[in-house]
Write a structure and sequence with these properties.
disordered N terminus; 30 strands; 3-stranded mixed beta sheet; mainly beta; about 55% strand; 23-stranded antiparallel beta sheet; single chain
Length: about 550
């Protein structure tokens, strides 16, 4: 009798153990979805539908190199990992947008992943379920650090001119996520000593901060920006404040030669606040109020070189306005690879983002004149065919005062990416811009760094512009020093501009080129570098049909 009860007890115990083991490990099977937008969407959607809550959240921060891989375990990778200070777990935790006890939500998980990937010191991030038990899901957060301490000796060359930078920068100071930088750099217009500070979570809050001080060869710049972004679709409110004080010389070019400069002083203050009005699980509608104060002062224009460009006119003006702001955000983000970067997960929104702001400048508030100041912007993305994605955006700004519209600007751009082969990306980019009665700060150019490689910088200026680029990008399996992935590119740049003084539209300017396209797999700086040769296809004054070297991170699409 006793032996029978022992057998029964043993069977019951074994059943309980098996049940506990199953409850610990078994998460719901992945949901069936037609087209997953991001890795892990099917798994997290099933967990959401099961009504589970986030349980324990375990954070793992990986170093720059994976020394567990024998081929990657060499002296320079060991040295780099030894010198690198990993991101602190508490910094990842305060940047994480999910918390234990909250109800699991697949969309929120993806938002949290994107937020981590968006940090400059992170080269990759994922959030995965470990096990599910007692109505909760244990979560593992994997963060892969980027190399962030850099003696930044960035160099770029296009249009027969160089820009360079010599800067000591750490975008993850002591693993805290803060950016500190000091250095010297030279742009096409000026040289400068710079001091920068950026924080993605100021004092552990939802606010970000960015502060810059630049001692310029022709003035100085001081700026401060505080921002509380809508980190989640359901964030109840957001706000931002920016302040700027700068003195510099506005430069004016034609035929690739600087012809004038105009001393300028700019002081601006802007603030906005928005509240979430509604969210239907996909689209968020927000509204609020914005205000802007800006004062612009100018000196006497100075002739630098002879040319046909008339002297720039700059009348002092003050803008002071307040008004409503309305924005719409559709969350249709999806993950891609090798579109703009190399071997990194890239997240782009294939839904609408739109914003409308109408301020009323008033002399009562100190403005030079009264009237509306309109700013509209929108972006969208879509996949017209298999293995193709199109990203488009546009903006319109205009100000009405002194009896007419001023500084009316229309900008629109679209880029199509096609990937017929996993390591090949075809790119077609087109953009259009126009200015009507522009302020002295705003000019349109085409040239070397202005998306017309092979030509002099600022080769032509005008009031309307069209630019196009065709490119074929190949990423090879070749990786140098476990850090730089080698690729190749061939491209064609085309541009046309409506020149001033009644000259009409210019002829089409074109160039062709080819060379290396190198992806930095480990660093937070210079993620894509070009080492190419471009040749202009049209010979004119100041332009010869001969190859020009183009080096650096010269494109943003």
């Amino acid at each position: 009798m006793l032996s029978r009860w022992l057998v029964v007890a043993g069977l019951i115990g074994a059943g309980v153990a098996l049940h506990a083991q199953a409850a610990t490990a078994a998460c719901p099977p992945p949901a069936t979805i037609e087209h997953a937008r991001w890795a892990g969407e099917a798994e997290w959607l099933a967990i959401q539908r099961a009504g589970l809550h986030y349980g324990a959240i375990r954070i793992q921060v990986d170093n720059v190199y994976d020394l567990a891989k024998p081929r990657e375990d060499v002296w320079y990778t060991r040295t780099a990992d030894f010198l690198h200070i990993r991101t602190r777990v508490w910094e990842v935790r305060r940047l994480l947008l999910i918390r234990s006890g909250q109800r699991a939500d697949a969309q929120q998980v993806y938002e949290a992943i994107r937020h981590l990937r968006g940090q400059t010191f992170v080269r990759g991030a994922d959030i995965t379920p470990i096990d599910c038990t007692h109505g909760t899901v244990a979560v593992r957060v994997d963060v892969r650090d980027a190399w962030t301490l850099k003696l930044d000796t960035r160099f770029a060359r296009a249009g027969n001119a160089n820009v360079w930078r010599f800067k000591l920068e750490d975008s993850n100071f002591l693993g805290s996520g803060q950016t500190l930088a000091i250095g010297h750099q030279k742009t096409l217009d000026r040289s400068m000593n710079v001091l920068e500070f950026l924080s993605p979570a100021l004092l552990g809050s939802d606010w970000t901060a960015a502060a810059y001080y630049e001692d310029l060869s022709d003035g100085r710049l001081e700026s401060l920006a505080l921002d509380k972004p809508f980190l989640l679709d359901t964030t109840p409110w957001g706000a931002g404040v920016t302040m700027l004080d700068q003195r510099l010389n506005l430069t004016y070019y034609d035929d690739g030669v600087q012809q004038w400069y105009l001393p300028q002083r700019e002081q601006t203050f802007a603030a906005d606040w928005q509240r979430l009005l509604g969210f239907n699980g996909e689209t968020a509608l927000r509204a609020g109020i914005a205000m802007d104060y800006a004062h612009y002062g100018y000196g006497v224009p100075v002739r630098v070189a002879a040319g046909d460009l008339p002297p720039p006119l700059g009348a002092p003006r003050t803008l002071a306005g307040v008004g409503p702001v309305l924005s719409l955000h559709q969350d249709h983000f999806a993950s891609f690879e090798n579109l703009r970067e190399v071997a990194r997960t890239e997240d782009y929104n294939l839904g609408w983002d739109a914003r409308a702001q109408v301020l009323w400048n008033s002399m009562v508030l100190g403005a030079s004149g009264s009237g509306p100041d309109v700013t509209l912007s929108a972006s969208d993305g879509f996949e017209p065919f298999a293995h193709w994605v199109v990203l488009a955006d546009g903006s319109f700004t205009a100000r009405h005062d002194a009896g007419g519209w001023h500084n009316a600007s229309l900008v629109a751009a679209a880029t199509a990416y096609g990937q017929p082969w996993r390591r090949q990306t075809l790119v077609f980019h087109v953009d259009y811009a126009s200015l009507l009665h522009p302020d002295p700060e705003d000019r349109l150019y085409i040239g070397g760094f202005q998306a017309l490689r092979g030509y002099p910088n600022f080769y032509a200026t005008g009031s309307r512009r069209v630019r196009m680029t065709l490119a074929d990008r190949i990423v090879t399996p070749m990786v140098w020093f476990h850090t730089f992935q080698v690729g190749f590119v061939v491209f064609n740049d085309d541009a046309i501009i409506d020149r001033p003084a009644g000259q009409g539209w210019s002829p089409w300017y074109s160039s062709v080129g080819a060379g290396f396209r190198i992806g930095n797999l480990r660093g937070s700086f210079n993620r894509v570098l070009y080492f190419t040769v471009a040749e202009p296809l049209r010979a004119e004054v100041g332009v010869r049909r001969k190859p020009e070297i183009v080096v650096g991170d010269v494109l943003t699409f």
